[in-house]
Amino acid sequence: MAHEGFKRKLAAILSADVEGYSRLMGEDEESTVRTLTAYRKVLSTLIHQFDGKVLDSPGDNLLAEFVSVVNAVKCAVTVQNEITARNDELPQNRRMQFRIGINLGDVIQEENRIYGDGVNIAARLEGLSEPGGICISGIAYDQVKKKLNLKYQFVGKKNLKNIEEAVHVYRVLFLQGASASKVIKAEVERMAFPLPEKPSIAVLPFTNMSGDTAQEYIGDGISENIISALSVGSGMFVIARNSTFTYKERPVKVQQVAEELGVRYVLEGSIQKSGDRLRVTAQLIDALNGHHLWSEKYDRKMDDLFNLQDEITKKIVVSLQVELTHGEQARAYAKTTDNLEVWSYGVKANELLDRFNKGDIVNSCV
Fold it and tell me: For residues 97 and 19, is the Cβ–Cβ distance under 8 A?
């Protein structure tokens, strides 16, 4: 008889827990809960960034799924590097280290939960992992061994609790701080301008991922509108569009942008348009400590673009704890137009003025 509501699927499963959690709680419950809350937010943000989904996070455990084993392993390496960097700021006895296990397996999905040996194996691999380390199954290893710039150590064929067949286990070997998503810290001493006392931010041009240069104006327009909205407040120092747009289509690091412009925070993102749908990613980075304050993905219709820009702006203001007067709020979230066509012409005109190329201007008027 068919089980209604159940479906099977292949998923990459990541299971994580805190090594020595009971000891940490026994020594200082409040401090442990504060650190765990902050670190769980880091894990959730990075899992989301790598197209994963957090399914459960009871106590010190966390379970997530990915459609790609490659993304799951990349995320795990990034998580361990980020946690290591944050632990450097804590006393030795208060540092919190995660163990991570990753498996690729067939699972049963019921609503937002998954079950089966695929999940159980990931949990058992987590238990075999060293503090700050990552263990993966042989099936997962077969998928990533030639696709990532990482090394692996074969641990052996292990009999795992309540798992019928032995599992090949590999340890992921990686250099601390070598994650591609790890942001190098900016140094105040190397900044070209004195760092303002109030929150300072540079909004970089959003990268066009559509593969269609005709859609370039959308990312530019989002960046411009966010800059304009943030600039109305007196509690924040915002780098002008003319300065941040010099980095457009240049492979620069957040550290470099922060040091050259004299800011602490950098917002970067990307856009991808397909039909009337628009996918936007945005992440706010604290360049002084290399931490991601947040990372979000939005999937909206094009006619919801202006509301999306407001959401990102408000999230920045809240994250940096900037207080706006009622008048500043009104100006920050005021729309210059509700007409997307008019808006697009305005953005394209600004782009032409930036280039100030006679040929482009003549062609645009034909």
Answer: yes
Nearest one of 285, 283, 280 to 222, comparing CA atoms: 280
Q: Is residue 16 within 8 Å of 40, Cβ to Cβ?
A: no
How do residues 241-258 score in pLDDT, each as one tens digit?
999 999 987 767 888 999
The better pLDDT of the pair 89, 267 is held by: 267
Q: Where are the domains of the chain?
A: 7-173, 188-364
User: How many CB atoms neighbour CB 7 within 10 A?
Assistant: 9
What are the pLDDT digits (tens) for 259-268?
Answer: 999 999 999 9
> In CATH, which superfamily holds the domain spanning 188-364?
ABC-type transport auxiliary lipoprotein component (3.40.50.10610)
Beta bridge partners of residue 202, listed in sequence order: 266
Q: Which residues, including other chains, have CB under 8 Å from residue 240's CB and lie 6 or more apart?
A: 227, 231
For the domain spanning 7-173, the CATH number is 3.30.70.1230
